[in-house]
Every structure is written in structure tokens, then in C-alpha cells.
Specification:
Blueprint: E1 4-7, H1 11-20, E2 26-28, H2 31-38, E3 46-49, H3 55-68, E4 73-78, H4 83-91, E5 96-99, H5 103-114, H6 116-123, E6 132-137, H7 145-157, E7 164-169, H8 176-179, H9 200-206, E8 208-211, E9 214-217, H10 231-244, E10 247-252, H11 258-265, E11 269-274, H12 278-293, E12 301-306, H13 316-323, E13 329-331, H14 336-343, H15 347-350, H16 355-368
Parallel strand pairs: 1-2, 1-3, 3-4, 4-5, 6-10, 6-11, 7-9, 7-10, 11-12, 12-13
Antiparallel strand pairs: 8-9
Helix pairs in contact: 7-16, 10-11
The chain binds adenosine-5'-triphosphate and magnesium ion.
Adenosine-5'-triphosphate binds at residues 138, 141-147, 170, 254, 306-307, 331, 333-334, 337-338, 341, 356, 387.
InterPro entries: AAA_dom, P-loop_NTPase, ParA/MinD_ATPase
Organism: Kineosporia babensis
Protein name: AAA family ATPase
Length: 387
């Protein structure tokens, strides 16, 4: 069990935080004392930065902790929580940002953080297997994220050749279960009461098996439950999953919310999906700029053009130029896609030689499996079937 250190420039505020969370820990108010104390802290300890510490100073301290004591978790208590603050929190890998009027949440977060050393052993991912987390994202709705995520997962599983888990992080309106005709006994919401206690056996209970090698963790059935799935739980869950599976494919909501950001942060590959229309391209441009600003390495990003054959006056070159990256995959438009969704059978399983399946398989082979392009000739999409 680690120890807690509370820091706030005003000693009564730091002391109040300590009392609110159970009264155990060291209270400091001078930056010099904090620097000195860092040298004595162990990797299991947690540093709580109080609400009166200036925001810039708080992030400076966090960065210092990252370099000097990388194992120490930092929890930031704020009077006001803004989006730029959360983005910076993500960048500096803060463990949590908590509203100063929410002592219960602070108490729970601190309990989880201090208990991590004790729970680390059973939950430690097996070093023998470290799968890749692949997140499919588009900030604009209806781009084809779910279509791509479900089919990519099926291609990668390849009838049991690899172990793949698809996670539906479109927490309010996820439709992975429908697209794969799953009848789940559990959803990701069942992980919420477990807090930081998720280990391989807890994860197994959340899974819904689709077919050989392919499992899913589906979205909650009640949209209101979405908020209870914390970003921290998501990163922890993905970490445990990557120890159990070769690939973890994450479908996302069309939003830059904290839950999606948590997934993007731990992803090895972020596949951005875009359709060839001006609003989608505008959103894509902002998305790429934001991701780069958040410190996401460009080499983790891939771009897939969905409905790539639509003749709407936007060339592939224009799409690539807007996104500041080449097109890594092309998926044509076909009414067979919605009909496969309605039947609940991923099109790559239903018709592997379909041009849509070929596009997704090609992308999986060249960008994920690194096997190079599939030389089989794709069939042409029948124009009359285009929606
Ligand atoms: N290549 C395609 N050809 C034809 N229809 C498509 C294609 N890709 C997606 N669709 C259809 O477009 C709709 C939106 O696709 P999908 O649900 O995959 O998008 P999404 O980005 O997940 O949307 P949301 O943001 O609402 O979750 C669906 O009805 C899907 O069947
Ligand atoms: Mg979707």
C-alpha cells in the first residue's frame, strides 16, 4: 500500500484534503519541500495537488514527477475543469482530475491509486503477449467507424487464426452488438463497480463470444450509464485486454470526449475514417490537428477513405492533402454494407471477395499485419447498387 502526499500552497486546504480522504498522509505547502519529499517517495505513492496550486505550476510539478518518480500517480483537484485542462492532463498523464466539491470521488480515486501496488500483481499483463490496440475514430457521425471496426476485427481474427476483441466505446449509442448479432450477458458497464480491480478473469466475464478468435465487449444498453465508465477504467481495461488478445479493436463515439481520448491515448494505431464530403473533411482536418497538438505521434495515425468511389468532385489527393497524410485504405460504397449490418453479419465474413471486404482486408494486411498488399484483384462495385 502506498502513501499519500497532499500539496497545496495554503496549508489548511491541503490539511482539509487529507482529512476528507481519511486523514492519513503528509501535507506540504512549500514547493521546495515538495521537491525534497519527491526524493523519498516510492513508486506506490500518490501525490494529490490541491485546488489553490496555480494550473501551470501543477502541470510543472506533474512533469517533474513523471521524470523523477515515474511510478508516482498524480491526482489534481480543481475548482474549475475545462477541456484544455483535461487535454493537458492527458498529455502529462495525470491519474485523475477531480472537482474540489467532490470529496467522495477524491476519496475513491485515492483509494484506488494507493491500492494499485497491492492489486498490481494479479492484474499484471502477461509479458509473453502484448497485443496491439487499434482504435477506429472519426469526430463526425456516420463516417463508417462501426462498419470498419467490426469488419477489421473479423479480418484480423481470421476464423480463429488470431485472438481479437472488439470493444464498443460508443458508450451511449453503440451498435457493435447489432452489427455482429450478439446477445450479450454483460456490457462494459459491468466493469464499473470493479474500479481498478479488473484483471484477466474479470475481463473474461465481460466478453461476449462471436466466433472463433473473435470476442466483444459491448456498450451499455442504457445510454445514461455511459457517464459512469471513467476514462481511467477504459485505459485500464484496454491494458488488461492487450495482455489477453493479439488485437484489441476499439469502436468509438463521434466525439472528442474523455472516454475516447483515453482510448486514443493507449492506442498503437489510430485509424481515422472519412467520407468524401466537405463537412467530413473539415472535421478530419480539425481532428488531425487536435491529435497532433495532444502529442499523438503522426506515425500512429492511418487514414481510411470510406465510400471512396463516390463521384462527388473530391479527389483522393485532396483528402490526403487535407489530412496531412496519405490514404492507407479505400472502402467503396455499397448497399450490401447496410444490408450486412441489418443481418448482423460482418460483410468480410459474408462475402470475403466483395470490394468492400477487399478494401478492408487490404488495409488490415498492409497497415496492421504488415503483410503487404493482397494481390488478388478486387471485384468492381456494381454502380447500380450504390446507395
Ligand atoms: N462503404 C459503405 N457503403 C454503404 N453504406 C455504408 C458504408 N459504410 C457505412 N455505411 C452505412 O452508413 C451508416 C453509418 O455507418 P457506421 O454506423 O459504420 O458509421 P459510424 O461512424 O459508426 O456512425 P456513428 O457515428 O453514428 O456511430 C450505416 O448505415 C452503414 O451501414
Ligand atoms: Mg458507430
Amino acid at each position: 500500500m502506498g502513501a499519500a502526499v497532499f500539496f497545496d500552497p495554503h496549508p489548511p486546504v491541503g490539511a482539509a484534503l487529507c482529512v476528507e480522504t481519511g486523514g492519513a498522509g503528509t501535507v506540504l505547502s512549500e514547493v521546495a519541500d515538495l521537491h525534497e519529499h519527491l526524493g523519498q517517495m516510492s513508486d506506490e505513492d500518490t501525490l494529490v495537488l490541491g485546488p489553490d496550486l496555480d494550473e501551470r505550476a501543477a502541470f510543472d510539478v506533474t512533469r517533474l514527477v513523471r521524470t523523477q518518480r515515474p511510478g508516482v500517480e498524480v491526482i489534481l483537484v480543481r475548482r474549475e475543469i475545462t477541456t484544455p485542462l483535461l487535454q493537458e492532463a492527458l498529455r502529462t498523464r495525470l491519474a485523475a482530475v477531480i472537482d474540489h466539491q467532490d470529496p467522495l470521488q477524491l476519496r475513491a480515486e485515492l483509494k484506488r491509486s494507493l491500492g494499485r501496488a497491492a492489486s498490481a500483481e494479479p492484474a499484471a499483463p502477461s509479458p509473453a503477449r502484448r497485443g496491439r490496440v487499434l482504435t477506429v475514430f472519426a469526430a463526425k457521425g456516420g463516417s463508417g467507424k462501426t462498419m470498419l471496426a467490426v469488419n477489421l476485427a473479423a479480418v484480423l481474427a481470421d476464423h480463429g487464426q488470431r485472438q481479437v476483441c472488439i470493444v464498443d466505446l460508443d458508450l451511449a449509442f453503440g451498435d457493435v452488438a447489432i452489427a455482429m448479432q450478439l446477445f450479450p450477458a454483460h456490457t462494459i458497464a459491468d466493469a464499473v463497480p470493479l474500479g481498478g480491480e479488473i484483471d484477466a478473469s474479470a475481463v473474461t466475464a465481460l466478453l461476449t463470444q462471436h466466433s472463433a478468435g473473435l470476442s466483444a465487449i459491448v456498450a451499455p444498453t442504457e445510454p445514461s450509464v455511459a457517464e459512469s465508465v471513467s476514462p481511467r477504467l477504459i485505459s485500464h481495461l484496454l491494458d488488461v485486454l492487450r495482455a489477453e488478445f493479439d488485437y484489441v479493436v476499439v469502436d468509438t463515439a463521434a466525439a472528442f470526449d474523455d472516454q475516447v481520448l483515453a482510448a486514443l491515448d493507449v492506442s498503437d494505431l489510430i485509424t481515422l475514417v472519412v467520407t468524401p464530403d466537405v463537412p467530413a473533411l473539415k472535421t478530419l482536418k480539425i481532428t488531425v490537428e487536435t491529435l497532433l497538438e495532444l502529442g499523438c505521434p503522426q506515425e500512429r495515425l492511418r487514414l481510411v477513405l470510406n465510400r471512396s468511389d463516390a463521384r462527388v468532385g473530391i479527389s483522393h489527393a485532396e483528402v490526403a492533402k487535407t489530412a496531412l497524410m496519405p490514404l492507407a485504405g479505400l472502402v467503396p460504397s455499397s448497399r450490401d454494407v447496410p444490408s450486412s449490418v441489418n443481418r448482423g453479419v460482418p460483410i468480410v465474413l459474408d462475402d470475403p471477395r466483395h470490394p468492400v471486404s477487399e478494401g478492408i482486408t487490404q488495409f488490415a494486411r498492409s497497415e496492421v499485419l504488415g503483410l503487404g498488399p493482397d494481390l488478388a484483384r478486387p471485384r468492381r462495385v456494381r454502380r447500380r447498387f450504390r446507395p
